[in-house]
């Protein structure tokens, strides 16, 4: 069974038997995650290409209390031109943007304006980000607000308490309501894995989110003590694989908050390629939630093109 | 050149080849190679090629060692040994530390050289082999320093001959050389002829660190060179390689006092229970049989999976297998490199073909150009299929199913071998039970192919004996404080005619001595008797041994299940009853022996719950436990002298550890033991734990040595007895221990050495961690 990549995950009925016997062996997951990155190596033009691919998968993000419309506009400019055009030209790459821009709901309009005329989508967090501890009707209202402002994608947070208490049907119902509120906007379900703690919780929550119709499952808000890690990502990817095996629908993956270096960008892509396959290296199924990552990739690209390591003052600020 | 935008479409990995120019320059500058003897390289002679199997390219010429070369090397080692031992632990530690550091500084060079010579992926030589080599020398620098305090009274063996295989050339060298040197021995090492180069690079490192001449000698060559080393005047042979060659070595050394440790083949089970994390288990298969092209003696090559999860497991396995990259070993994105030699590739292909011909289905496993074979597995395979029974030593596993845990254990144990096992279950209860049931020297729970210098490694059954690594490994390179050796008397010729004039007291009812089998008095199968101590004693034979072994197996489960405290209670009760039956025993044994028997009961009752294993500090996040397990059924051929003290000195430590015993009492004076049988009966020693077969010692000893279901054999007697016994035992690699004592009642004839010989170690690895790293797990 395989649905076209373009077809959205409609979700399923809550089906606990798909996940209630999962028990992830943590040391084994960690061993796999740590050896995986030593099993694959990317050099020269191959490395440059994979780094550029990472750029087109980035949800360039600002989620700070001091965000302003102008700051968001500057970020959007960077999203439209993440790598210096002369360097792209030197590599024979025509055009490149990031995968999306990700902001708070009140900044959607500013982003929308700054990105007008481009194909770069605007993603908005919602549902009482980052803790999600608001009444459900307010969380749903926030989704509708972000949509009304023009968001193409909504990054929602799940109620961690429902996972920690094992109340899967309540979690499923909440997420179904959120998915309905998202309407045509893509729903990325943030599991806040650093607060779920165990990999078994992560696996089960991943399944519930997909069964409720999430288009992407996402590791973290970036505000938890531990954000995206390779072992957590591995477990989520295996849940995506299992869901695809059962339903034929491809759910996307978004690690967030833990990717800071070009090496991280390569490692996560290797993880995607090895565990899910190359289809999951496209922005339609892979996003990286990051803000500082792009700077390090720019430095590596600059070195690949010029043979020199650039000072950050020579790179365009986002 | 592929353009960046094209790659952005294909998202291929592209080549990433490690630079080998420094290694090639070294080979050019240093080759052709002679042997390393007495601190310098000999002039190359009678060279053969060392080949890169991935490119069929000649890397260097290496010399074929002759018996003369071996003799020279042994002389050099012999000359160096006293000085090396006399240096003291601290000085030896400094050298081992220097070796560790130097290897660490040259890890890139050594891993590239290893990959070129062997064909293994650079990722493995770089991330696994060489770091483990370094770890091994560090660990043993520690043992050198601590030898005197941790092994009081122990002495080095002398000169050790060491023969290593081609699958982990430098790592196996480290496993052999490091403990030998730490203990104060000197060595003559013969690397495998396919892979001599890292050993020669190691010789150069020995020179660099200023290791005294003759402490390490390396003679290159093929099996003939190895045979010359086995025949040479060395104090120990340590061999890692095939079971067939191991058997030959064991036969050759039969009847000598040379020590022998053997780390041989395997067909290790990989057991996936229905509650396992299947993804973790699939990854375990990758780390088992698809590691080092499957050329791993302890590889989990027999996958046994619970029927309830078999379909899903196989689906995941196939998907994972499809992701493995077979390719140039120097490419850093290669998972599976080259088979070491065309001969080995052919052998793998032949076994696979035979397996398919016998009805199995091969998934994957395609032969590539040159020395490459894709990973694969055999399914629908019957237990008797050659693919199931023979060690393939290639990247081909077998996959079959089981229904219940007991069936899993039975299938796991249905093999000649017993090196390692891997068990996958998320239930601690289930996993630890399986670890206990499976007969193997190493068990990995929820993991596979984990190694560490502190964790003993070695096998049982056709996988050999002896351990490498940790405390146990050191003991295999040390001589324990010796007992005063004695010469046992030669038994009289067996005669059916009683001595004249000693026909017993007519006032007594005639006493009929019988064999003691399965807790009952039994007449001998042949219905014959022989004369001893003025009585007609049953003349036991091969069939009685057979019956006794069967009874011992039937009885040992209950006895082992009693637990150490339970067995101790029985031994104390035995002492109590011995004390009460003194008078009866006094007819057949002097008071000193009866006193000794009572003392030994107390001693081994005391020790039953104190000869503990240990946990070792192998890696963080891993609970690594070394257990002392009983062998199972032991044959014990008692001395002809000291009819009671000799018997109890051997039988009591064996049963205290949970073994069942088939004992051959003193041939000339069996009555003490046969009287003891009645005491055993009334002391709650359960049926079948001690069995006694009286009769001609040599014939009975040989019958025990030729019984494949006797797991260990102790035999007292002269070399003329021991040689044929050890030769016969070599057939199924039964470990033979030949104690000798001047005075069997002496205090020195008891203790840890006997308990150690009555057990073998099982190393169980259990990785733990409820939480991932970075979230406060105790494991990290």
Name a few traits of the molecule.
heterodimer; A: 318 residues; alpha/beta; TIM Barrel; eight-stranded parallel β-sheet; B: 780 residues; Aldehyde Dehydrogenase, Chain A, domain 1; Aldehyde Dehydrogenase, Chain A, domain 2; 3 domains; ten-stranded mixed β-sheet; six-stranded mixed β-sheet; 31 strands; 17% strand; globular; DeoC (chain A)
Description:
The complex is a heterodimer of chains A (318) and B (780). In chain A, 47% of the residues lie in helices and 10% in strands. With 318 residues, chain A is α/β, with parallel strands linked by helices. Chain A has one domain: Alpha-Beta Barrel (TIM Barrel), CATH 3.20.20. Chain A has an 8-stranded parallel β-sheet. Chain A is globular, with a radius of gyration of 19 Å. By secondary structure, chain B is α/β, with parallel strands linked by helices. Chain B folds into 3 domains: 21-264, Aldehyde Dehydrogenase, Chain A, domain 1 (3-Layer(aba) Sandwich); 268-458, Aldehyde Dehydrogenase, Chain A, domain 2 (3-Layer(aba) Sandwich), CATH 3.40.309.10; 515-562 and 612-764, Aldehyde Dehydrogenase, Chain A, domain 1. Chain B is built from 26 helices and 31 strands. A 10-stranded mixed β-sheet of chain B has the order 13-14-15-12-11-16-17-31-25-24, with helices on both faces. A 6-stranded mixed β-sheet of chain B has the order 8-7-6-9-10-18, with helices on both faces. In chain B, helix 6 runs parallel beside helix 7 (169-183) and helix 19 runs antiparallel to helix 21. The relative contact order of chain B is 0.09. The mean pLDDT of chain B is 96. Chain A: Keywords: Lyase, Schiff base. Chain A: Pfam families: DeoC. Chain A: One of its GO terms (molecular function) is deoxyribose-phosphate aldolase activity. Chain A: It catalyses: 2-deoxy-D-ribose 5-phosphate = D-glyceraldehyde 3-phosphate + acetaldehyde. Chain A: Pathway: Carbohydrate degradation; 2-deoxy-D-ribose 1-phosphate degradation; D-glyceraldehyde 3-phosphate and acetaldehyde from 2-deoxy-alpha-D-ribose 1-phosphate: step 2/2.
């Amino acid at each position: 069974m395989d649905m076209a990549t373009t077809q959205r995950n409609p979700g399923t009925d809550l089906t606990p038997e798909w996940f209630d016997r999962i028990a992830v062996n943590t040391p084994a997951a960690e061993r796999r995650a740590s050896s995986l990155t030593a099993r694959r190596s990317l050099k020269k033009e191959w490395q440059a290409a994979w780094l550029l691919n990472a750029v087109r998968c980035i949800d360039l993000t600002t989620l700070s209390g001091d965000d302003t419309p102008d700051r968001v506009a500057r970020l959007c400019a960077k999203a439209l031109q993440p790598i210096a055009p002369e360097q792209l030209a030197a590599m024979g790459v025509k055009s490149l943007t990031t995968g999306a821009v990700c902001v708070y709901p009140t900044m959607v309009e500013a982003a929308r304006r700054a990105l007008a005329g481009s194909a770069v989508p605007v993603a908005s967090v919602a549902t009482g980000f980052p803790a999600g501890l608001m009444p459900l009707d307010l969380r749903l209202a926030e989704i509708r607000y972000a949509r009304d402002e023009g968001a193409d994608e909504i990054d929602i947070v799940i109620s961690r308490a429902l996972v920690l208490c094992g109340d899967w049907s309540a979690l499923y119902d909440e997420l179904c309501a959120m998915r309905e509120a998202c309407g045509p906007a893509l729903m990325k379900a943030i599991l806040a894995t650093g607060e779920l703690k165990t990999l078994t919780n992560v696996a089960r929550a991943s399944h519930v989110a997909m069964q409720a119709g999430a288009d992407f499952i996402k590791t973290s808000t970036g505000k938890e003590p531990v954000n995206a890690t390779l072992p957590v990502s591995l477990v989520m990817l295996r849940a995506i694989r299992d869901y695809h095996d059962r339903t034929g629908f491809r759910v996307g993956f978004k690690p967030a908050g833990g990717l800071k270096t070009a090496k991280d960008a390569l490692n996560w892509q290797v993880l995607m390629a090895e565990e899910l396959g190359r289809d999951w290296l496209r922005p339609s199924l892979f996003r990286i939630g990051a803000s500082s990552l792009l700077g390090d990739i720019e430095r590596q690209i600059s070195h690949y093109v010029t043979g020199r390591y650039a000072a950050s003052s020579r790179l365009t600020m986002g | 050149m592929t353009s960046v935008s094209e790659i952005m479409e294909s998202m291929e990995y592209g080549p990433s080849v490690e630079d080998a120019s420094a290694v090639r320059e070294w080979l050019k500058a240093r080759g052709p190679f002679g042997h390393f003897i007495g601190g310098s390289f000999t002039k190359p002679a009678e060279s053969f090629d060392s080949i890169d199997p991935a490119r069929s390219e000649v890397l260097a010429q290496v010399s074929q060692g002759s018996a003369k070369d071996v003799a020279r090397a042994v002389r050099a080692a012999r000359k160096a040994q006293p000085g090396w031992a006399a240096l003291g632990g601290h000085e030896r530690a400094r050298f081992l530390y220097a070796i560790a550091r130097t290897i660490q500084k040259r890890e890139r060079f050594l891993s590239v050289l290893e990959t070129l010579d062997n064909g293994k992926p650079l990722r493995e030589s770089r991330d696994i082999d060489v770091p483990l080599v370094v770890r091994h020398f560090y660990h043993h620098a520690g043992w050198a320093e601590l030898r005197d305090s941790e092994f009081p009274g122990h002495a080095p063996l002398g000169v050790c001959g060491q023969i290593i295989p081609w699958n982990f050339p430098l790592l196996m060298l480290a496993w052999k050389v490091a403990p030998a040197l730490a203990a104060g021995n000197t060595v003559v090492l013969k690397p495998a002829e396919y892979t001599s180069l890292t050993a020669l690079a190691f010789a150069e490192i020995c020179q660099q660190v200023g290791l005294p001449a003759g402490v390490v000698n390396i003679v290159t060559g093929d099996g003939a060179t190895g045979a010359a080393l086995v025949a040479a005047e060395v104090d120990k042979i340590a061999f890692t390689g095939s079971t067939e060659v191991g058997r030959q070595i064991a036969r050759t050394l039969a009847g000598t006092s040379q020590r022998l440790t053997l780390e041989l083949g395997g067909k290790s089970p990989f057991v996936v229970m229905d509650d396992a994390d299947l993804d973790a288990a699939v990854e375990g298969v990758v780390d088992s049989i698809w590691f080092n092209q499957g050329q791993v003696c302890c590889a989990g090559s027999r996958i046994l999976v619970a029927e309830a999860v078999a379909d899903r497991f196989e689906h995941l396995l196939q998907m994972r297998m499809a992701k493995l990259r077979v390719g140039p070993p120097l490419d850093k994105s290669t998972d599976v490199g080259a088979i070491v030699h065309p001969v080995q590739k052919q052998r793998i292909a032949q076994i696979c073909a035979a397996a398919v011909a016998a009805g199995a289905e091969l998934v994957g496993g395609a032969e590539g150009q040159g020395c490459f074979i894709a990973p694969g597995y055999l399914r629908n395979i019957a237990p008797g299929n050659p693919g199931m029974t023979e060690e393939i030593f290639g990247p081909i596993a077998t996959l079959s199913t089981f229904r219940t845990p007991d069936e899993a254990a039975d299938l796991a144990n249905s093999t000649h071998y017993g090196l390692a096992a891997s068990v996958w279950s998320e239930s601690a209860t289930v996993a630890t039970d399986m670890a206990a049931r499976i007969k193997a020297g190493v068990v990995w729970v929820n993991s596979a192919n984990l190694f560490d210098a502190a964790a003993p490694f070695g096998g049982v059954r056709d996988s050999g004996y002896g351990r490498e690594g940790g405390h146990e490994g050191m003991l295999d390179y040390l001589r324990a404080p010796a007992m005063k050796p004695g010469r046992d008397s030669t038994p009289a010729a067996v005669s059916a005619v009683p001595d004249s004039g000693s026909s017993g007291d007519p006032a007594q009812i005639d006493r009929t001595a019988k064999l003691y089998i399965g807790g009952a008095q039994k007449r001998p199968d042949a219905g014959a008797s022989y004369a001893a101590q003025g009585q007609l004693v049953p003349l036991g034979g091969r069939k009685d041994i057979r019956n006794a072994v069967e009874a011992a197996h039937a009885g040992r489960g209950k006895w082992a299940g009693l637990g150490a405290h339970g067995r101790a209670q029985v031994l104390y009760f035995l002492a109590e009853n011995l004390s009460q039956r003194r008078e009866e025993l006094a007819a057949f044994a002097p008071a000193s022996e009866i006193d000794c028997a009572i003392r030994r009961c107390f001693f081994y009752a005391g020790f039953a719950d104190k000869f503990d294993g240990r946990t070792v500090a192998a890696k963080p996040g891993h609970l690594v436990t070394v257990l002392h397990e009983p062998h199972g059924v032991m044959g014990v051929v008692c001395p002809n002298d000291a009819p009671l003290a000799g018997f109890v000195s051997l039988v009591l430590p064996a049963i205290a550890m949970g073994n069942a015993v088939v004992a051959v009492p003193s041939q000339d004076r069996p009555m003490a033991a046969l009287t003891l049988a009645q005491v055993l009966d009334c002391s709650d020693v359960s049926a079948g734990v001690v069995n006694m077969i009286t009769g001609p010692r040599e014939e009975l000893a040989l019958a025990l040595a030729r019984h494949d279901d006797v797991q260990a054999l102790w035999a007292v007697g002269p070399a003329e007895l021991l040689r044929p016994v050890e030769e016969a035992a070599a057939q199924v690699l039964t470990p033979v221990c030949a104690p000798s004592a001047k005075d069997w009642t002496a205090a020195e004839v008891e203790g840890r050495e006997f308990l150690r010989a009555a057990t073998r170690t099982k190393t169980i690895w259990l990785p733990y961690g409820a939480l991932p790293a970075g979230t406060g797990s105790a494991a990290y």
